[in-house]
Amino acid sequence: MDFQHRAGGKTGSGGVASSSESNRDRRERLRQLALETIDINKDPYFMKNHLGSYECKLCLTLHNNEGSYLAHTQGKKHQTNLARRAAKEAKEAPAQPAPEKVKVEVKKFVKIGRPGYKVTKQRDPEIGQQSLLFQIDYPEIAEGIGPRHRFMSAYEQRIEPPDRRWQYLLFAAEPYETIAFKVPSREIDKAETRFWTHWNRETKQFFLQFHFKMEKALVAPPGQAPSLGVKRPPSLITGLAPHPHSDSMPPPPPGGMHGMPPGAPMPPHMPPPGALPPHLRPPLPMDGCLDSHSDGTHSLQSIHC
Q1: 10 Å Cβ neighbour count for 186?
Q2: Contact yes or no for 183/169 (Cβ under 8 A)
Q3: Which molecular function terms from Gene Ontology are attached (predicted)?
Q4: CA distances from 8 to 1, 3, 4, 17, 23 (A)
């Protein structure tokens, strides 16, 4: 036989395989692959009869060896029957109720109004740090309920136009209404000693105190104590000129001042009489006296005091 000039043949290759040989080789490769990935003993439709052959109980087909059965399981007929069997079992199976979800009972309370409160502004005397102390009274608070609080941005609320300069501190406890306080939108000091809360179960009072963080202090010039940020009240006496030095003061009149002997030296650091405002000048000698009224006015009486 001339194998050299056959179509598709090569010298020494043994010739081109026929279609039956190709199918047999393909089935063998599928069997080897299926044996590596599928455990045939766990297939519910695989059965070995008394003749030594194998049957598919789903498709009612006979197979001479395991490889033939495994090749059958990868075919179109077997896959179609598997889909039909799954649809039939799903239709005949009773509808199983869905697992019940855990229902959380919503507590409903009748609002009884707003609680009483007290706000105290404080400042640390040593470093000048500002703080706010809130005291909220909940005498009729529900059993097992504790007060809650949180800070809210100005953009979360819908009562006022949002203003980035302010934030809100909310307090809530059933059955009271939620109340809010408008505080400056400054950074809060969350240190352990600068932010604390306390719920007194006996007096039913809730306390909260927080401090604002300190702003950067101004650098004081050398030789001067740094400012703590505390504003000093203005002087109660205004309009007085600075005390002149004793060398620049005019000499006393020749006859001396009223009530002082001639030649007596003028008391140090005492401004001349003309520099004092009218309400601080010494009274002039007169026959009457001033009578003060409850409204703060004064009237001159003509009787002897």
Answers
A1: 13
A2: yes
A3: nucleic acid binding; zinc ion binding
A4: 16, 10, 10, 10, 18
**pLDDT tens across 3-50, in order?**
555 566 566 565 667 788 888 888 788 777 777 777 778 888 889 888
| One-letter identity of residue 21 | E
Of residues 214, 210, 199, the one with CA closest to residue 151: 210
- Helix or strand run (H / E) with residue 211: strand 205-212
- The rounded percent of the chain whose pLDDT value lies above 90 is 30
Residue 169: pLDDT above 90?
Answer: yes
Handedness of CA 273, 278, 281, 287 (dihedral sign): positive
CA dist 229 and 216 (Å) reads 10
Q: CB within 8 A of 116, min separation 6: which ones?
A: 136, 137
How many of the other CB atoms lie within 10 Å of CB of 282?
9
